[in-house]
Design a protein that fits this description.
It is built from 13 helices and nine strands. It has two domains: 129 residues, no CATH class; 184 residues, Glucose Oxidase, domain 1, CATH 3.50.30.80. The chain is an alpha/beta fold. A nine-stranded mixed sheet has the order 1-2-6-5-4-3-7-8-9.
């Protein structure tokens, strides 16, 4: 596992619209090897690599069809010009040699016939690079809410929500936020804020329950964003921005957000910021002064932990560093 091998993984991840969890797991694994994967590397690669996988939740089809179309090896074949082909793999051969062997043995055409059962062609499931509808699939957003960074899978987000400004609805746990959604207390245009669900807050669980409640509500779907210092499942859909860092339990600015603060994010600009207070837009200087004053307050105490869970929540690193121990 070399730096080049990790870069290959990020390239493929970008091309297939993989889970935002990769921005945790890959840096954490690399850290154990003395390799640093900066968040900016993910963003750099996602600015370059065409999004080829037309797979749920970023596309239309199931992973079964993706496998029949050639799967990850076929994506690697299409992206040969971007990949480090000389890395050694678990086969004992280089990636380039593996792809050549797969071509010689007919692997890439072996299962494409099964696509006919779904009335599909290969190009319907894995786009050729020149037919890709977008570049990349995830973005790293930074700003006064997340100076260390945050992550969004924009390939699973409707275009209308790639930039948005709305009033914050702040909750200290996912359970509280989810209940507010199902009780009809959230309005179109709102920005749900779920804090204290980061590595040191609660161990950083996946918040699929709330995102699914939003997208399954016809009134809210495509109009409500969610930001959190927690993380998301690979199946998450919608405007879901996770890994807000520093997290609330470490005194990050998300700990001091209040209801009706105006939250603005822009995927193209890679920004996420508080831009107003009590629904009124203010200058950046006034916002900074208000946040500095708010940050003098104590953060919400976390429930007592025991055993290894306690050790982890005491010492876990930032989500933007892989949330490792």
């Amino acid at each position: 596992m070399t730096k080049e091998a990790f870069e290959n993984a990020i390239i493929v991840h970008s091309a297939i619209g993989g889970s935002t969890n990769a921005t945790l797991h890959l840096p954490a694994i690399a850290k154990e090897l003395g390799i640093t994967l900066e968040p900016e590397l993910f963003d750099q690669i996602n600015h370059q690599i065409p999004h080829l996988g037309n797979i749920n939740p970023s596309g239309q089809h199931l992973t079964e069809s993706f496998w029949f179309a050639g799967g990850v090896p076929y994506v690697q074949l299409l992206l040969k010009e971007y990949l480090h082909l000389d890395v050694i793999t678990v086969t004992g051969r280089t990636l380039g040699e593996n792809l050549q062997k797969l071509e010689e043995t007919g692997f890439f055409t072996r299962y494409t016939g099964y696509l006919a059962n779904y009335h599909l062609e290969r190009d319907d499931v894995i786009y050729p690079p020149d037919k890709a509808v977008e570049i990349g699939s995830i973005a790293i957003l930074k700003g006064n809410i997340a100076p260390e960074g945050s992550v969004i899978k924009y390939s699973a987000c409707v275009k209308e929500m790639l930039s948005h400004t709305g009033p914050a609805r702040v909750f200290d746990s996912e359970e509280e936020a989810h209940q507010a959604v199902v009780d009809g207390k959230i309005n179109p245009g709102d920005v749900l804020v779920i804090r204290y669900e980061g590595p040191r807050g609660s161990g950083m669980p996946e918040l699929l329950m709330t995102t699914e409640a939003i997208v399954c509500d016809e009134r809210l779907n495509g109009t409500v964003a969610l930001i959190t210092n927690g993380r998301f499942s690979g199946a998450t859909r919608g405007a879901a921005i996770g890994h807000i860092s520093p997290e609330a339990a470490r005194g990050g600015m998300i700990a001091f957000l209040e209801d009706d603060d105006l939250i603005e994010y822009d995927v193209a600009a890679r920004t996420i910021n508080i831009v107003g207070i009590r629904g009124e837009k203010l200058s950046a200087e006034k916002i900074d002064a208000i946040l500095q004053e708010r940050s003098k307050k104590e953060i919400v105490p976390r429930p007592a932990r025991t055993g290894l869970f306690r050790r982890y929540t005491q010492y876990a690193a930032s989500a933007m560093e892989g949330a490792s121990y």
